[in-house]
Each structure stands twice: as structure tokens, then as C-alpha cells.
Amino acid sequence: MNVAAVPDRVREYRVVVADDEGDFARGLARLIGGHFPELNVVAVQSGREALRVMAEGPVQLMITDLRMPEMTGMQLLTEALVVNPGLSTVVLTAYGTIETAVEALRIGAYDFLTKPIEPEQLFRVVEKGLERSRLLEENNRLREILARQDAGGELVGEGQAMRQLKRTVAAVAQSEYTVLVRGESGTGKELVARLIHRLGSRAARAFLSVNCPSIPENLLESELFGYVKGAFTGADRDHKGLFAAADKGTMHLDEIGDISSSVQTKLLRVLQDGEVRPVGSNSTMQVDVRLIASTNQDLEAAMKARTFREDLYYRLNVLAITLPPLRDRTEDIPLLAAHFFRVACREMGLAEKEVDPEVMHWLAGNPWPGNVRELQNFVRRMTVFATSERVDMNLVRLVCQGAGASAQPEGCTRVPDSPLGEYKAAKAEVVSAFTEGYVRDLLAQTRGNVSEAARVSGLSRVALQKILARMGESASRYRDG
């Protein structure tokens, strides 16, 4: 990570380097600070000092030696993770303490470095550790925001576009004017229409939402405006229609751009005069309905093509709200995903899931051409196929491979082959390979003398014998070598 690549949020981060050898700790701190000048790097010589620094303010990354007097690195690791469970901790180890480093990984350390330390390796570990801390902090922030969100249908989002949308909706709701809500499919147009009604003076009255394309063209007119007995075959009684049913309330006409010219003409009368004429009737009736229309179509192009009435367009477009596509508010994706996970778990009667930061990072980087609706459907599929309380990249891979879905997000093509959730298992494999190679070289050097090998390595005879047993290796075969 070069200096220019340090994210803004990382620029405020603090790093603690703990080693009882003061010169080494300060040298390591200078090395890190020189490569990442935006970081605040503090060098200390004991575990107690490290905990004191943590008590003074947030620390995102701690690098600690394992062998320190009074408080060992393992003890420091344990106490530090109690204080800050999201802390990324890197332990420093020598050849003789490799097993202790593996144990540190097991109890919560993020990574380890072997002395002598290679600068490039150090920089990579620091970069990844800070990124992990950033993702964990973001997850915690999302939980706090969700705790304040209304789970019953509020607009979910904290980005600039959503803050502006919330202000606009609140202002529009205080009037009685007709509203035209525009936006791509899946951006939440009906949700906005319902929210306008709920925040307005008609909240206690009826709210009726009609998806215009879902009703056959020859039936839409009679459904909206009603009909009288005998108006057509099968009309054996009077039917007052949806506008009459919504009197004193709000009517939402979704996909208004798909209605026929005859329905457009009748709708214009409702907007101009507040009058509805049922099909087959010679008289009109007065209705008091606030109209909210929505569409994903280009109505200006439809007017030029003479498929949408210009006078109706201007009657509808008194107040206009345009919903941003998800690609223009990617900062809200983790918050939306967390909300949808919570809703899906509640719908299925499941305990809430713990979502790995890597999953949120992947979701936030996905294009989601189907917008919020596509994201919600993907989260629902993950909830259905989750077999544990954690949602990790293994589950993402399963869903992307087609489990229960006919079409997958474009981002599924970039799901890593090796899921990030298996990091510690992969680390254990590397450590195991290192240990086996080291022990074989050690035995060759000491000609199979276990006592000498223990002295050279710093391992106890018992620990060395346990490693040999685990390897299925015998020291005796090195004695003649």
C-alpha cells in the first residue's frame, strides 16, 4: 500500500508496537511511520504500557512480541481483545516460538511475523490489518445505524443522496399536490409513495396502490373508475372503482407510462376537476384523492412519440422525485444488506445472522443492475441457504453457483476461488509446512540429537517430540546422515 492509497478513514488510525527491547520497538515504529506517515504509531516496552495507550483512545492495530517480562505477548493479546474485540493484532515470533504463534492465531491474533522482519512483509501485514479493522468498524457502525432505523418500511440509507431524498419526501408529504416519482426498476418507488402518504395529512385514510401493467388494458379503466350495471357483458351490478374507494385518501399508480390513451384521458379529468365517470354511466361523481404516479420510463420521449399525453404529463409532474440507482449510492449497500438480513431472518423465524466484513465488502462492490430489489433478493437467498449463524464468503460462493437462483449478480464472476473465511486454515497450513521444514533441517544439523536440537531451537524436548510425532518423523534416521 503506497502512501497515496491510504483511505481517509485509515488516516486517523493508531498503531501500537510493544516489545521489551526499546530500540527494536522504536525502530519498528519508525519503519512503519516512514512508510505510512498518516498513521499515529506508538512504541511501548511492556504490555501494561500498551493497555494504557489503548485506554487513552481507539487503537486499530497492535504489534506485540511474544516474549516480554511481567506480561507476555499472549497475556497482552488476551486482555487487549477483551478491551477491543475488533483490534487487529500481529504477534512477533522467532523460530523457537513458532508453536506459540500458532496458538496466538487460534485465540484471536490476526497474523504473525517472524524475526528478523522483512520490511515489505511488515508493510503488507500492516496494510491488511488496518483494512480488517476498517471493515470491522464499518460493520459496527452499520449495527448502530440499524438500531435507529425503523424496521417497518423507512428509507434505509445514510449517504448524501439518501439524506437529500428523505428531506424531499418529508417536504412533499406536507402538501396535497400530485407527485411524479421516477427511477429505475427496483429503486423503491412504491416505498416512497407509501412514505409520502404516511407522513402526510391523509395518513389515517386509505392508500391504494395499482400496478398498471398488471391489469389488462380492457379492465384497467373499469377497475380505476368503476362501472354501472349493464355497461358490458358480465356487469351484473354497479362497481364504484378504486378512485371512489380511495376518496379522501391517496392513490398510487405505478408504471403510469404504460396506460392506454383512453385511460389517460379519463385520468386527466380526475386531475383537472376531481370527477370520475364510471364506465357506462352518463353522470360523474366527485372524489378527493391525492395522486402519486411513478414510472421507470422516459415520459419526455413518450410525449415526442405521441404515446403519452403532454397535458397529462404536466398535471402529474407538479412535484417530482427522482430516486437514485444503487450504483450512485454504493455507500448505503452495507446498511441495506444488514437491514435485509435482519428482515429476512425475522420473516423466516431465524436468529439474526453475523455477517463477515468480507461479505459486506463484496456486496458493496457489486453492480446490482436490479437495484435495491436485486440486492434484497440475493440477501434472501443467502438467508435461506445459510446453515450457521455466520454469513461468510463460502455462502456467497454457494448462492453464486446457482443455488435457488435463475439469474446471478454480475459481481458473482469475481468471487474469489479461495473464500476469505478460510484464512486461518490457510495460515495453519503455511505454518505447518514451515515447522516441518525447519524441524527436518534442525535434525539434519544436529544429526538426530534431540537434546541438542531442543537447545538450538529453544523448544523443550517434550514440545519437539510432539512435533516429531505429529509429523510421523523419527530422529533416529538422521543419526547416520
What's the quick description here?
The protein is of the alpha/beta class. Helices cover 48% and strands 12% of the residues. It is built from 19 helices and 14 strands.
What fraction of residues sit in β-strands? 5-15%
Averaged pLDDT: 84
The computed structural class is: alpha/beta
Tell the overall outline: elongated
CATH topology (level 3) name of the largest domain: Rossmann fold
List low-confidence stretches: 1-11, 148-153
Helix percentage range: 40-55%
CATH class membership of the largest domain: Alpha Beta
CATH-scheme architecture of the largest domain: 3-Layer(aba) Sandwich
Biggest sheet architecture:
5 strands, parallel
How many DSSP helices?
19
What number of structural domains do the residues give?
4
Biggest sheet, spatial arrangement of strands:
2-1-3-4-5
Q: Which radius of gyration do the C-alpha atoms yield?
A: 33 Å
CATH superfamily membership of the largest domain: P-loop containing nucleotide triphosphate hydrolases
**What is the number of strand segments?**
14
| N-to-C span | 46 Å
